[in-house]
Design goal:
Layout (H helix, E strand, L loop, with lengths): L1 E12 L2 E8 L13 E5 L5 E5 L10 E6 L7 H8 L5 E4 L14 E7 L3 H14 L2 E7 L9 H5 L7 E4 L6 H4 L7 E6 L2 H13 L7 E3 L15 E5 L5 E4 L5 H7 L18 E5 L2 E2 L7 H6 L2 E2 L5 E2 L3 E4 L2
Parallel strand pairs: 7-8, 7-10, 8-9, 10-11, 12-18
Antiparallel strand pairs: 1-2, 1-6, 2-5, 3-4, 3-6, 12-13, 14-16, 14-18, 15-17
Bound molecules: FE2/S2 (inorganic) cluster (FES).
FE2/S2 (inorganic) cluster binds next to loops.
Amino acid sequence: MIEVIVTSRNNEALDICSYELASVEGHALPAFSAGAHIDVHLLGGIVRQYSLCNRPDEHQCYRIGVLKDAASRGGSKSLHEHIHVGDRLQISAPRNLFPLVPQARRSLLFAGGIGITPILSMAEHLAHEGAEFELHYCARSHQHAAFVERLKSSPFADRVHLHFDSVLDITAILANPQADQHLYTCGPGGFMQHVLDGAIAQGWAEENLHREHFSAAPVDTRADGSFSIKLGSTGQVFEVPADKTAVQVLQSHGIEVAISCEQGICGTCLTRVLEGIPDHRDLFLTEDEQAANDQFTPCCSRARSAMLVLDL
Ligand code: FES
C-alpha cells in the first residue's frame, strides 16, 4: 500500500475528473508500464481500479481519470464528491493486465468514453518510442470526451482520430490485418465488442486483439449449486452455498483472503488449488492457466467438482 496526496484535480469533461497523485514524502512512485492500473482505497472499504493515464516515464506522479458513473456502486461517486486537492489516499502499486506487445510493428488504439485513460498512456509511450500507431477516440459528444486538448496539442496529434460526430468506420480501419499489428480497445463493453467483432470479421487473429476490462459482464448464476472447500493446512471443510462466494464463506470463518475487484478481474484473491476442478469465472487467468486448474479466484469462481482443496 502506498499513501499518496492529491496534488491536482481537474474537470476534464462532463462528469469526468482527473486526479494527480504524488507520494506524501515527495519520493518517486513505483514504475509502471502503459496500460497499468492502480487500486484506490476509498471510504467505506471500497476498492476500485483506475487506469493510469500519464506517460510511463513520469515517476513523480500518477494521473487517473474518473467518470462519475450513474450506476456507481460507491467508487466514482465517492471520489467525485469527497476527494479534493490535499486529501490523502491509499493506493496499490501499479499492475498491468493490459500491456502493449513490445514486438508489434504497428498498434491500433480504440478508446470509447472514459476508456481513453489507458489508451492515452499507451499513445504517449508509443510516440515516445517512435513506434507506429493510430488512435481512434469515440465519445457521445465533445462534451463527454476527456483530454481532447491534450491529444490535440500532443506531438502525435496527427495520429489521433476523434469520432464525436462521425461514425467509426471499423471495416475500413481494420481492413488488411497483419501478424505484426496489434489492436487495443478500452471502453464500455458494447463499444469494445463492436471493435473486436469488426476485427474478427476482417480476419484478425485473436492473439492480436487486446481489451481492458472495467467490469466483468454479468454471469448467469441461476444454475449455481453448492460445493465444499477444504483448507489444505488444517483440513477444515466449509460448505459454499449457491448464494455465497468462496471468499464470503472463508471470511465468515475468520479466514482472510485479500480481495479487491471482487469480479475476477484483478487477480488479488488468486488462491492455489491442491485438489478438485474449479469452475473459472474470472477474466484474469489466461485460458491455459485456467485449464491447469491449479489456482482460482475465490471472489467469483466456483467448483465443477464436489470439493476444492485450497492451499490455505
Ligand atoms: Fe479481484 Fe478476486 S478480488 S479477482
